[in-house]
Amino acid sequence: MLIKTVLNRLEHFKSFVFGAVTFQTVNGSEALIIEIKARANSKPECPECGKRCKKRDTLPTRLFEYVPFWAFKVFFQYSPRRAACPVHGIKVEYMPWAYGKERMTTSYKVYLARWARRLSWKETADIFQTSWESVYRAVQHVVEYGLANRNLDSITEIGVDEIKVFIGHKYLTMVYQLNAGSRRLLWCGMERKTKTLLRFFHEFGKERCQNLKYVCSDMWVPYLKVIRKKAPNALNILDRFHIMKKFNEAIDQIRRGEVKLFKAESQENVLLNGRWLLLKRPENLNEKQTTRLGELLKLNISSIKGYLLREDFQRFWEYKYPAAAEKFLDNWITRTLQTNLEPMKKVATMLRSHKPLIMNWFKAKGLLSSGAVEGLNLKAKLTMRKAYGFKSPECLKMALYHTLGKLPEPLCLHIFS
Ligand SMILES: [Zn+2]
To answer: Which CA distances in Å does 376 have to 61, 66, 77, 182, 315?
Structure first.
């Protein structure tokens, strides 16, 4: 079978045909060169208006990198013509396989970008014997196309969250769509300030904001303010995942304080390596850990008291009737405020001041999955971990849109996957 036959199945470029296929040395290695020719009598197309214009002249031959074939690099070879457009002047003609001055074909970019979603960008570059920058440009192209062409209609549920990025106290604000079946990253921006989230709502548009029914968020006050103002028809829900995260932070703070205290008093450190025992739910522990937890629970120390308060609070989510849940919540807050566990008391105060938003969780119960934001966050963190090459926030954002945005791809290469 001829290579041309294979190519014709993959790519159809109106007004162009494939010519000779030869081996040539490119950058020191043997590559497959596929000649492209304009159809006889065809006129070059203006890249601005798409009009077929008179040919002005022909430029020197250029190579456009295509998807590698077996172990060979593949290039299209073409001598672009210049079109004399009556409106736009002299322009290098539109070539359907590549954009502007790009040296990579769109098909190859989409191909690289698909791999870059599964592997790190560096691994992708290594496998395809290309540079990190080429992978970067491929992803950039695909993401820009995807963002410009995605559909933002019928979004009714969103989740807002922040994740720590880079070193120091840098945050990235993440906005997810949470509608079942189309959970994805809608927007991300550096910082977690009022104006950060305002930027999202501004870009999202007034009309779409009016359609929002549920907004899931944590207790971060700047977010709460913006949500109230910009999504007036939505029920703002403080969800289970975010609230339990506060509990874990409090327990961890108590535990760290106690470990320090044991050290200072040269006591036996009973909490040594106890971090995960206290942070995990008991049902997620293995047999050995469960035994160890059992021993810890017999001790009269603050970390354990904090742990027991959290486990007790889990019952809150099981209530069927909001009124009963609210009674339990009030009771739990009162009990906790009577202890001497400062970090836990802070949680209690926070719960009390955000009670209406927490109770909203019951109004939306069953409609919103509490694990959705958590799951998307985990994926985002995984993307960042693979991201040792992401030096700038822009780059990190691009990688996040690429892996979590469910973006539409430029139309080509239906067959590769
Ligand atoms: Zn034109």
So the answer is: 46, 33, 43, 12, 25
For domain 157-239+368-404, is the CATH number 3.30.420.10?
yes
Distance 244 CA to ligand 1 centre (A): 59
Span from the CA of 34 to the centroid of ligand 1 (angstroms): 29
Alpha helices (runs of H) in 211-268, residue ranges in sequence order: 221-230, 240-264
- Dist. CA 36 → ligand 1 center (Å): 23
pTM of the model: 0.82
**89 alpha carbon – ligand 1 mean position (Å):** 7
- The DSSP bridge partners found for residue 90 are 84
CA dist., res. 207 & res. 281, Å (int): 42
- DSSP assigned state of 315: G
Helix (H) or strand (E) holding 326: helix 322-337
Tell me the pLDDT tens digit for each residue of 296-316: 777 778 888 999 999 999 999
Ligand 1: centre distance to CA 324 (Å)? 70
Q: How far apart are the CA of 91 and the centre of ligand 1, in A?
A: 8
Strand partners, 171: 164
Helices 393-404, 132-149: axis angle to 10 degrees equals 60
- pLDDT one-digit tens code per residue, 50-99: 999 999 999 999 999 999 988 899 999 999 999 999 999 999 999 999 98
- Whose structure tokens read 């703070």? 253
239, 227 Cβ separation under 8 angstroms = no
Q: How far is the CA of 49 from the centre of ligand 1 (A)?
A: 4
CA–centroid distance, residue 87 to ligand 1 (Å): 5
159 burial level (CB within 10 Å; 0-12, 13-18, 19+): buried
At residue 390, what is the residue type? F
